[in-house]
Amino acid sequence: MSTSVVIPAAGSGSRMGAAVSKQLLLLQGKPILVLTAECFQHCHKRHLETVNTLVREYALTKVSAVVVGGANRQKSVMNALAALPSSSAIVLVHDAVRPFVRERMILESIDKARVHRAAVVAVPVKDTIKRAAAEGFIETTIDRTTLWAAQTPQAFQTRLLVEAYERAEQDGILATDDASLVERMGIQPAIVMGSYENIKITTPEDLDLAAAMSGRFGA
Ligand code: CTP
Ligand code: MG
User: How far apart are CA 93 and CA 81, in angstroms?
Assistant: First the structure.
């Protein structure tokens, strides 16, 4: 039995608006997806060659396969799940653009997925969240005490996640995270405390934040 990690890295980074996809931008002198993969070390087709080259250049020896991504994140993860070894008992899915994940989150996610079948790294929401009506006016305020912002990694018993992906495909469901696909099967993933540093680098200001945090990160 083994544990696998899927790192979706096939996005185009439209919200970042950079010349290259954001997972290839440099942080601490390295491509972001390398920093992310290194946290686990101890594509759309056009990325495939680049990623293979990075895997060799940075000696990411735990990367067993680089697979072609899909039109959306869900399709990219599906392609990766199809490439997992049959011995995989637990699988983690972790965004290539979250290089500030901590070992504690990875280990707790694995432990909790073993017991509860699924686990999600998340943080309590800090802002007051409001729902708007269609015309651009606030309709209501949602009780913040029950709200969590989902991060990655998200960990699952492998056969459960594979089944959740098959069902989503059959039902025409397109989700933005993996846990929601097992939630719709009636499973309640366990919460693993994340951190406000474990950001998903999404827009240009996230890059500034990441550069600022890099100074005190690591070591
Ligand atoms: N991802 C992927 N395949 C896709 C879309 C996204 O593997 N077709 C990956 C991204 O590379 C990233 C993660 O999923 O590591 C989270 O997605 P997101 O932050 O939305 O990245 P992009 O889709 O690239 O950015 P945008 O939505 O701004 O275009
Ligand atoms: Mg996207």
Answer: 10
Q: Work out how many domains the chain is built from and give that number.
A: 1
- Residues 77-123 pLDDT 10s: 999 999 999 999 999 999 999 999 999 999 999 999 999 999 999 99
Residue 75: pLDDT over 70: yes
Host domain of residue 63: 2-217
Spacing, Cα 139 to ligand 1 middle (Å): 31
Which among 73, 202, 203 is the best mutation to test ligand 1's pocket, defined by most ligand atoms within 8 Å of the CB? 73
Peptide bond into 153 cis (omega under 30): yes
Å from CA of 103 to ligand 1 middle: 23
pTM across the whole model = 0.92
> Which helix (H) or strand (E) is 157 found in, with range?
strand 148-157
Question: Residue 200 maps to which CATH number?
Answer: 3.90.550.10
